[in-house]
Every structure is written in structure tokens, then in C-alpha cells.
Write a structure and sequence with these properties.
The chain is an alpha+beta fold. Helices cover 45% and strands 12% of the residues. It has 20 helices and 12 strands. Helix 15 crosses helix 17. It is elongated and about 80 Å long.
């Protein structure tokens, strides 16, 4: 064990960021440790992060000692999730992992010491632990703290990206979030990673996590620069894109969805992924359109996927800003009014569409005007 910036200061930082862990330490029937990103962020002075605990024992016994029922449990991996003082806590048994083939989910052996558990982790900066019984101490077998100070991402062993190539996506996430560089050998190993050995679902899930970051576009740019993803319309090294700049559309989507009125229109992460990596949808035709009337704009946008609309606006379809208001326009008349006037079947829907077109374009300001436009025979 090595001290944590002065054992006292580490203990104080832990107490401030995670006061509920004092209760965990008091109740735990087995040695329990705060691990991973929570320790990393604590040492970086970034405050509270998601709580991951590792137990040298049975996670269920710890949950019982805390008087909580698991919110979720995965017996295959010896993990469960509980709620304590309004916070979700992930608890895992200390374990060893073995990969039967590249990219496979690991075979898990629970009941190992904490240091064995730390050896299975992705980067040295995530392979540190604080024992809750001795919160002033830092278990740091791979000098993760020194790599934190140097701003480096370093894998723990040479087969790390072979075992789990999605660690390369995580590297982009951490590098973009913290401004870290790749340690030289880690960079060479990462560029040789084969994401094709991982299931599409796992790959998509990791990319989705990356795209959910505030620094999503920078992270995706790193992946493209490392040759691990292909930029939309470009090469694996990130060529192509809007105006010849890699990820220009993704940058535009990022800006657009960061504030109203577009911030709630589509899933930001999915929109950024679509803008960065594709596939292209029908947003190009929307971006090129120049509707002459509000009713034309509403017809053009009607039924389109929200991500398609966000991408089109980011690509230059400024008329969609007005469409956000025009889509809220509704009629005072109803189908019942038209049925009472003698219309039947498809003619009712067609008449309502005529009335809405007229209202959008300023030709039916009153209810009477709407009814007149609806009942007017089409030319």
C-alpha cells in the first residue's frame, strides 16, 4: 500500500465525496474497497463519481448487512446493485477473469484477493482501490497515481485490447474527457485492436457511452485518428465530412443540441453518432429544401425521424427552426364538423388537410375560414 497524498487527506476527501461509505465500512462483514473511476476522480479532485465497490467475500452478504434489497443482480459476474441514501451502488465480488477467445465475454472466478481483481482492469488509472476500513490508504499496484499525474493512459498488460477491444473505445472516452495521452506502447497496442471480434451490440453500447459524454465529438475524432472507426463519408483516419473537415456535422449537431429549442428534439448521443459515423438517412434532401410556405415545410418534415431532422438542421436547414412552431398549429374544426356537413370516408381527412394548409399559410384565421377552406372543392 502507498499513502494517498497524505493518508489523512485521502480519507478526508473520501468522507466529503462519499459520506454514506462510512456506514458501509461499519456494516461490512468482509473487506470492501472503493475501486475504479471513483478512486481516479477522487485523486483528480473531481469529486463524486459512480460508486463501485469490490468485496473480498459475498456481495449479497454486504447488501443484507446494509439492510437493502438488490435492485439488480448478475450471478454470472458476481455483481449486484443496491440503493443507499438515495445513491445507487454497484457491488461486485473480487474476481479473476479469463478470456477464451478475443472479444468474448470473460469467464469469471469469484473469491480472489483485491489485487487479483485490480489486475483484470483496463488502465492503470482505473486499477486503484481504497479499503473502506482504512480510507487513508491507496492500493495502487500498477502506479496508476503516477500515470494520473503524467496524464497517461496505460494498459496493465499487452493482451488487454485483444481480450476486450472495446477498451479502445473507453480509451477515447477517457482521453477526451480528461485530456490524457496514450502511453507509447499502449498506443501501439490500441491501434492494432480489432473491434470486429466484439459483438455489434457491445460495440454499439460502448460507442453510445462515448457519444453520451460532453466531449463526445473529440472522443470519436480520436477513434477515427487511431484508425478504429470510419468517419461518415471519409476514411478511417478521419478524412471527408462536411466541407472536408472530419466530423464537422457532428460538431454542428453537438452545438445544436446543447441548448433549446433543439436540445430535447432527439437523443443527443444517437444524433452525434449518426452525424459522425452514419449511416446517412434522408437529411440531405431536407437540408437542400427551400419550402416556400409553412404548409410545405410541415409536409416536408412530417413523419421524419427526430434524428434526421436534427441532422438536417445542423446541415443548414434553417427553416426547421420555424417548423418547430408551425408543427404546433392545430385546427379549431374536427372531423365531426365535416361529417355533419356531409363529408364521408377519405374525404374527411383530405378536407382537414386543406384546412390546415390554409391556416398555416395565413388563409384561414378563424374557425369559419377553416370550415370554408375544408369544404371548398379542390381544383
Amino acid at each position: 500500500m502507498t499513502g494517498g497524498g497524505g493518508g489523512e487527506s485521502l480519507a478526508e476527501a473520501l468522507a466529503v465525496a462519499y459520506p454514506e461509505l462510512a456506514d458501509v465500512a461499519a456494516a461490512a462483514p468482509d473487506p470492501v474497497y472503493l475501486v475504479g473511476g471513483a478512486v481516479r476522480d477522487l485523486l483528480l479532485g473531481r469529486g463524486r463519481a459512480d460508486i463501485d465497490l469490490v468485496v473480498e467475500g459475498d456481495p449479497t452478504a454486504l447488501a443484507r448487512a446494509l439492510g437493502t434489497e438488490p435492485l439488480a443482480a448478475h450471478s454470472r459476474f458476481g455483481t449486484l446493485k443496491v440503493e443507499l441514501d438515495g445513491h445507487e451502488i454497484d457491488i461486485a465480488a473480487a474476481r479473476r477473469e479469463r478470456y477464451v477467445r478475443p472479444g468474448a465475454l470473460p469467464a469469471v472466478e469469484v473469491g480472489t484477493p483485491i489485487r487479483t481483481d485490480l489486475a483484470r482492469r483496463d488502465f492503470t488509472v482505473n486499477a486503484m482501490a481504497v479499503p473502506l476500513a482504512e480510507p487513508g490508504e491507496l492500493i495502487d499496484p500498477y502506479d496508476g497515481r503516477e500515470d494520473l499525474r503524467a496524464g497517461l493512459l496505460r494498459v496493465i498488460h499487452g493482451a488487454s485490447f485483444v481480450d476486450d477491444p472495446t477498451r479502445a473505445i473507453r480509451a477515447a472516452r477517457y482521453a477526451a474527457r480528461f485530456g490524457f495521452d496514450l502511453e507509447e506502447e499502449t498506443g501501439a497496442l490500441l491501434r492494432a485492436a480489432d473491434l470486429g471480434t466484439v459483438s455489434p451490440e457491445r460495440r454499439a453500447a460502448e460507442l453510445r457511452r462515448l457519444a453520451g459524454e460532453a466531449t463526445a465529438v473529440a472522443g470519436l475524432g480520436l477513434l477515427a485518428g487511431w484508425g478504429l472507426v470510419r468517419a461518415r463519408g471519409g476514411s478511417p483516419s478521419g478524412g471527408g465530412g462536411e466541407g472536408g473537415e472530419p466530423f464537422a456535422l457532428a460538431h454542428a449537431v453537438d452545438r445544436l443540441t446543447s441548448a433549446p429549442p433543439w436540445s430535447g428534439e432527439a437523443d443527443r448521443a444517437e444524433a452525434i453518432l449518426a452525424a459522425a459515423l452514419g449511416p446517412e438517412a434522408g437529411e440531405a434532401s431536407l437540408a437542400a429544401a427551400r419550402p416556400a410556405r409553412p404548409s410545405e415545410a410541415v409536409r416536408l418534415a412530417r413523419g421524419r425521424d427526430p434524428i434526421e431532422l436534427v441532422l438536417a438542421r445542423a446541415a443548414g436547414a434553417a427553416w426547421l427552426d420555424d417548423w418547430l412552431c408551425w408543427r404546433e398549429v392545430s385546427l379549431a374544426i374536427t372531423g365531426a364538423d365535416l361529417t355533419a356537413a356531409g363529408l364521408r370516408g377519405p374525404a374527411v381527412g383530405e378536407a382537414l388537410e386543406r384546412a390546415l394548409t390554409a391556416k398555416l399559410d395565413g388563409d384561414a384565421p378563424t374557425r369559419a375560414d377553416e370550415l370554408r377552406q375544408a369544404l371548398e372543392q379542390p381544383r
